[in-house]
Amino acid sequence: MASRVRAERTILKRSCFLLPVRYELLVALRYLRARRRDAFISITTIFTALGVMLGVAALVIVLAVMSGFEASLRQRILSLTPQIQIESYSGAITDYKAIETRANAVPGVAGSDPFIIGQAMISSAGGISGVVARGVQPDNAVVVAQLRRYIQHGSLDSLAADAAPAAPDGTIAIGSTLAEKLKVKVGDPVNIVAPITAGADAELTTRTGHFAIGAIFESGIAFVDRDLVFMGIDRAARFFGREGVDGIEVRLRNLDQTETVTALLRNTFTKSFRVNNWMEFNAAAAAGFQLLKRVYALVLILLIGVAAFNLVATLIMVVMEKRKDIAVLMAMGAARPDIRRIFVLKGMIVGVAGTAAGLTLGAAGCFILSRYHFIHIEKQIYGISTLPIEAQPLSFVIVAIASLALCWVATVYPAHQAAREMPVEVFRS
After folding, report:
1. Which of 53, 243, 321, 325 is the most buried if burial means most Cβ atoms within 10 Å?
2. What's this model's pTM, rounded to 2 decimal places?
3. d(Cα 49, Cα 357) in Å, to the nearest integer?
4. pLDDT digit string, tens, across residues 323-369
5. Partner residues linked to 87 by β-bridges
6. Rounded to an integer, what distance in angstroms lies between the CA atom of residue 377 and that of residue 233?
7. Distance between CA atoms of 213 and 179, rounded to whole angstroms?
8. Could you state, in order of their start, the residue ranges of all structural domains in the chain?
9. Residue 96 to residue 276: CA distance in whole angstroms
10. What single DSSP character describes residue 270?
């Protein structure tokens, strides 16, 4: 009896080898072509594939937009704030040129810039505001590369030590939001008042400086444009009464090497210096953005899941419609795993088609959004006027795997039910 069943299975498989594929795939493909009385099932299958396609496309586009927002925000924040900074535990750094030389020799470092930080109050005839003053070298290649692109009015060269002073204490660069608050423009005078500790008993006094607006920048980051003021490092040292610099800012060739370069710098500057990076400065913001990105991804994966699990209903209807076909196949020698494989393949064909179409639609959507900026957003809130797009190949791969996995899970129950059919009961009924 067993030898007869094996012979019948061999005949079945040989008769179905019209193409160099397994006969289960040929049967699954045949079930996708609906006859007139199976038109409803065919339409349901089409809509299931469309649902998977739209879910995949939406997830791909949203991930690209979220990645674009993250990259844009990170670029604008790190253009005007330190990527890695080196500070001395003993206070001011007097031999900062030697520290710069050692830092620039570390692999992955693009350049360095000494800085001075001080808190102050800035005032004009139109307003007053608290600020953080940052003394930089305006002719330093690092400063020029990160700050010059955001200058809207005036010139960064006005901050240089050898520039003709427009005011007794020199010129400064302020953000556009602060300029609007103070109601000033390039060339207008402002006063800066800073707390100064002096003497052996560290008595707190104040110092007032008379500056002029030399440049106005706009980064698109609210707190940077509102609270940050740049001035030449020599003038900052004189104004704040510093004998050295507060630290060394290090710029990276690639932000993805942040942790590696930080470890190398910590090995280079051991116990006397503290080395911190932007990931540690902005840990809460980065973690919050990653959480938001995961939540959006999870919601859209559930959208794909809803479409994918429509396959359950579709395949159950196919199993009910094809009970006689299943009984005939099993009577001819098809094993239960073969029947199960037929319906799994049918569902996966729908899933693969929907996923491929969704990835194509998503890629086309990302290209259109990045090429034609027809969706506008509030620049004062987001710092940019159009949606930023950064489509990452890894996102496409992850979305494809997730979609196909959901489609496969959706086929398990109907395929299992089809394999449980008893030919004798079907023929009897």
Report:
1. 53
2. 0.67
3. 9
4. 777 777 777 777 888 888 888 888 888 888 989 999 999 999 999 98
5. 274
6. 37
7. 9
8. 2-74+287-428, 90-270
9. 17
10. -
